[in-house]
Design goal:
single chain, about 240 residues, mainly alpha, Recoverin, domain 1, two-stranded antiparallel ribbon, two-stranded antiparallel sheet, about 50% helix
């Protein structure tokens, strides 16, 4: 069914924007902390992460601590964050408090792996991955199997052009090729003065394109994104 894929897509945005930031946050207790699991056989609570057992498994010199060399390679990237007292080794307490830093480093591209691994509908997942695959193939203009910065820039321009066309198709009611203040709606209207850079009382396609291509955080670009949303690539 499509339900899992539909649920995952918003979650993938969180993976890109939220999980990356979460790894750098200070460890939080209370409601934000993972809750212990329960052993279905005994009914007893099982720690979400057992620091004592973790140390026992990897403590080669049996001193009750883990050095950076003893820590498995996939976990060493955050050793300094785990080593709260900076003594060059990890105690049971440090591991228990900072175990969230044992997560592997995340990258925006991980959304593909999440989609493949977590979807319960192979057919639906394959459809979504096909959209990504076809879009990447279109970005690779020279067909060398790689996407360089120039190809990425060109692809961004194509997406923004489609987004601007969509906005004008919806808002330019008199079809004069520009948006008046009366025609503007939503965030375009809220940021009208920022978008109307030549102060002629209208927003042209060029002004909207320029705003959309500015770096993230600019008022114009935010207005376009909030108004129209992401434009899906054509199949």
């Amino acid at each position: 069914m499509r339900r899992t894929v539909a649920f995952l897509l918003p979650a993938l945005v969180l993976l890109v924007a939220g999980v990356l930031a979460a790894e750098d946050r200070k460890d939080k207790r209370g409601e934000d902390a993972p809750r212990p699991k329960e052993d279905t056989r005994t009914g007893k609570r099982v720690p979400f992460f057992d620091a004592a057992e973790f140390i026992k498994e990897y403590d080669r010199n049996k001193d009750g601590y883990l050095s950076k060399d003893e820590l498995p390679g996939q976990f060493r990237h955050n050793f300094d964050k785990l080593d709260a007292n900076k003594d060059g080794k990890l105690s049971q307490e440090e591991l228990q408090k900072g175990f969230t830093h044992l997560q592997p480093p995340r990258r925006p591209s991980d959304f593909v792996f999440v989609l493949v691994e977590m979807s319960d509908c192979d057919e639906c997942c394959a459809e979504e991955l096909q959209v990504v695959y076809e879009f990447l193939r279109k970005l690779d203009k020279n067909g060398n199997g790689k996407i360089d910065a120039d190809e990425l820039k060109a692809g961004r321009g194509d997406l923004v052009q489609k987004r601007v066309d969509s906005i004008f198709a919806e808002l330019d009611t008199n079809k004069d090729g520009k948006l008046s203040r009366d025609e503007a709606r939503g965030q375009v209207k809220a940021h009208f003065n920022d978008l109307d850079t030549d102060r002629d009382g209208f927003i042209s396609r060029e002004e909207l394109m320029k705003a959309a291509l500015e770096k993230p955080g600019a008022a114009g670009k935010g207005a376009i994104r909030k108004t129209s949303g992401a434009t899906a690539p054509e199949k």
